[in-house]
Design brief:
374 residues; alpha+beta; nine-stranded antiparallel beta sheet; four-stranded antiparallel beta sheet; elongated
Length: 374
């Protein structure tokens, strides 16, 4: 430096030093910011993972419901594994669940036979039939199920109620006209699985019976379902009082009882046939008695069918075998800057080029949920 000020060389040197110091400070700030994001990002990933697992397990534990669940689960399978969230059953693996459960206190029976599938349902007054709201707790826009002891059922939306006549009107015609004594109850019928965006991001979602799609947890990249069922077919017998019994699923029809559809011989249904008058199961043994075997989509899509195969309400009788569902859920960090390139750590790669110390790897959790025998 001279008396006249700084020389050009000195100014250049000072500028370079200033730029180097500034660059180092910015790099340290970026590193500190990345480190600051890792902690909250990791906690958020764990929180969402727990939420996803609890949502799936909670829905399975609620299958059937507390109100009227005995009648519901002994007549209709309340858990139905699906190969996609749209209701498919013919894919290579289970990726979604259809869950039916009774809700509130709305449980009743038909007081009279339904004349035609498009007609209203007339309910009988009983202690389990609440006075309000509507008819037996059913009101307009509620979702209800009607089912009988042969595994025939419909889920419908209530479009009108007439309390004075104890009548409930479905929004659309049912698959059949139901006889007096059929059960009617308020239900939820939801599908749970992953909805994917165009970029592959997943959201654990619930699809209601009406078709509404409700997000549950963001950032769910994988949902694996393994389903286990009883290897042995149900034990069937005719009770001394004439009531047929089954260790699980539909009991056989009483000897000589006619099938109103004319589909099965007298005394038989989709789960039971009769040989010289004695009830035998239509389900094939899949392994040693008292053990559980893993059920695959092929097991639940080959019959015997309750309802005619191809009917909108048809289901495979092997669904009554289900006793356990294993869930495995994998969740990713939401910000892409916390994910490295696609690898075993990341199902979907992110934008981070930093060291692994700045990453939040995918988290996963597994849980088994028992499905009780009814």
């Amino acid at each position: 430096m001279s008396a006249r000020g700084f020389t050009l060389v000195e100014l250049l040197v000072a500028t370079v030093i200033t730029l180097l110091v500034t660059a180092a400070a910015l790099a340290m700030a970026a590193s500190a910011r990345a480190s600051f994001n890792v902690g909250p990002g990791s906690l958020d990933t764990v929180r969402r993972l727990r939420g996803a697992v609890e949502s799936g397990a909670g829905a399975l534990r609620a299958a059937g419901g507390d109100i009227g669940s005995g009648a519901l689960l002994s007549s209709v399978p309340a858990v139905r594994p699906l190969t996609d969230l749209d209701g498919g059953t013919d894919g290579p693996a289970f990726q979604a669940l259809w869950i039916l459960r009774a809700v509130d206190f709305a449980a009743a029976r038909l007081a009279a036979a339904q004349p035609r599938p498009t007609d209203s349902l007339t309910l009988a007054v009983s202690p389990s039939c609440p006075i309000t709201p509507g008819v037996c707790g059913l009101d307009v826009d509620d979702v209800a199920a009607v089912f009988d002891a042969r595994g025939r059922f419909d889920v419908f939306e209530v479009v009108a109620v007439v309390p004075e006549l104890m009548r409930v009107t479905p929004a659309a015609g049912l698959s059949r006209a139901y006889a007096a004594g059929a059960h009617v109850m308020k239900v939820r019928a939801d599908r749970i699985g992953i909805l994917r965006d165009a970029d592959g991001a997943g959201v654990l979602s619930r699809v209601t019976w009406a078709g509404a799609r409700e997000p549950i947890v963001d950032g769910v990249v994988e949902l694996e379902l393994r389903v286990w069922g009883e290897a042995a077919p149900p034990d069937l017998r005719d009770g001394e009082d004439g009531t047929a019994l089954a260790s699980y699923g539909l009991p056989p029809s009483s000897p000589g009882e006619e099938d109103s559809d004319g589909y099965w011989p007298p005394g038989e249904n989709c789960m039971a046939l009769r040989d010289e008058g004695q009830p035998l199961s239509r389900l094939a043994p899949l392994g040693a008695p008292t053990t559980l075997v893993e059920l695959h989509p092929a097991h639940l899509d080959d019959g015997p069918w309750c309802e005619r195969a191809g009917s909108a309400t048809a289901f495979d009788a092997d669904l009554f075998r289900i006793r356990r569902v294993d869930l495995r859920v994998r969740v990713e960090a939401m910000p892409a800057l916390l994910r490295g390139s696609a690898s075993r750590l990341f199902r979907r790669g992110g934008t981070s080029a930093a060291t692994p110390l700045r990453w939040v790897p995918d988290r996963e959790m597994a849980l088994s949920v028992a499905i009780p025998r009814r």
